[in-house]
Please model this.
Amino acid sequence: MREFNLIEHRSDVEKLVTYLPWLESKAGANVSRTYDDNGIGASSIAFPVYEAMLLNFVNDAGKTGLMDKNYPYVYSELFIKTVEDEIKATERADIKTGAILCAILSKYVLGGATKGTLWTQAVRDGVFLAVVRRMKELVEHWDGPIDAIKES
Model:
């Protein structure tokens, strides 16, 4: 697995940390709904409508240096197949294996662009929350505290 230095991407982590209060409040909740008002189903297909904060998070995360287009390689190398595997890998990640956190984040952020349910699943199952928390813990442990969390 390639090495990834979270300290070098401290500003990216700080950007995502601002979403922690929202991610904590939405764990276990649905952050999208299906738009099917006014009988749209009769003439068209229903489509998902996401909470604005989710879209902001995904857009901000997608613009960071934390995205890894080769995330499937990390998943296959570590035999990650389920959400439980992702959470366990997140908990085990350390400063030298930050690539695991980037791979998990990337799966949902990048994959959600073509499979919209991934974004809401990552919030509901606490994957985004676990990854951002762990990134924050690692950066703070090795490089000092991240300033007070600002509401996005």
Observations:
- The beta strands are 32-35, 47-50.
- The CA atoms of residues 16 and 104 lie 14 Å apart.
- The longest helix spans residues 127-143.
